[in-house]
Amino acid sequence: MSHPDIVVIGGGIIGAAVARSLALAGLTVEIIDSGTEQGIATQASAGMLAPLAETDTEDPVLGISVRGRDIYTELVPQLEEETGVDIGLWCEGIMKVAFSEADEDATRSLIAWQRQQGLNSEWLVPGELRERCPGISDEVRGALLAPEDGALDPLSLLEALLVSAANLGTRITRGVRAERLQIEEGHVTGVETDRGAHQAGAVVLAAGAWSGRLGGLPRPLSVEPVRGQMLAFDWPADEPAAIVYTGKGYALKRGAEMVVGSTMEHTGYDASVTPDGIEEVTRTAAQLYPAVAEATLRRSWAGLRPATPDGRPIVGKDPDVGGLWYATGHGRNGILLAAITGEIIANLLTEDSLEFDLGPLDPGRFWQS
Ligand SMILES: Cc1cc2nc3c(=O)[nH]c(=O)nc-3n(C[C@H](O)[C@H](O)[C@H](O)COP(=O)(O)OP(=O)(O)OC[C@H]3O[C@@H](n4cnc5c(N)ncnc54)[C@H](O)[C@@H]3O)c2cc1C
Fold it and tell me: Is the CB of 253 under 6 A from ligand 1?
């Protein structure tokens, strides 16, 4: 390939999904990924697909999130067949438990609202919850069950997306840092890297929490790192697989482990695990499954979520500079939203029709006076 139609900056889950969708649409694509940052979000993620457990009644992105989840029931088997990578899709529901009367009231109202929107969720009384989760705390008063929510293995999804993108002709350039956008007469012409210039007809910025650090952006980009610390314990013997949420965190089974998360900390680009973080996440785990208090901590890690001021991703084109596209700021839901983000960017770039109102994701929303 001489120079590609599009350079995607960032080879995390968002860059990979965007590149694959663009290549599927017939465009030539290059992914540039530096790969040396500490705290890359995709590597740290729990991989839950939780549009209903993560939402509230004010969420303008709910329709996109639900569609984002549902895409995977078709996409994962296709990718697995194409690439041979086992993505570990688990679609047996997520439970959001209530510990107090106030929690229960709010959760039951949320269920009523979700059902009015035509979404599938229900209230589990303690006996029903315990059938699914015998080891859950006695303090729990019941739970929202979102039976279609679930999880997948984010690193396997990333691998499969990159293999598929490469099969479609995408060039994946690793160990190269994008440093500065090249813009001529109001249009992107490529990107300067630490290894020289890469020309392209358009650039998609998908560099996660580092997106705002790219030089030459037309204006400051509102994406900041929010650290999440994660722990893994042994999954309790004989406890059935489950994904359980509280207001403060969650626990899920992956392999033989109980993966538990997560803190939400504004600590800049520091991706370290701290004693306070370990204590907080362990407390969440033991609140849900008291047996964890005796369990051995197997692993700990942290990642930096690319967060925006309103908690919504930034997906779409720059209002002024031609050929500059954003696919960033996915915060807590970048795995859930990766595939749909790829579809949205590919549809926008090829001017295909779109069924969604993309206003809530519009990059220009932070810059309108
Ligand atoms: C602890 C934790 C738990 C999470 N759990 C979930 C969950 O259960 N479900 C869910 O949906 N989401 C979850 N998320 C959120 C999700 O992981 C992120 O939203 C998503 O991974 C963001 O993907 P990304 O590709 O934008 O960023 P990243 O995965 O951070 O990737 C950014 C990439 O850009 C590259 N890069 C950076 N700067 C440059 C540069 N200048 N030049 C070239 N390349 C560059 C990096 O090397 C990196 O590969 C979680 C996040 C964390 C931290």
Answer: no
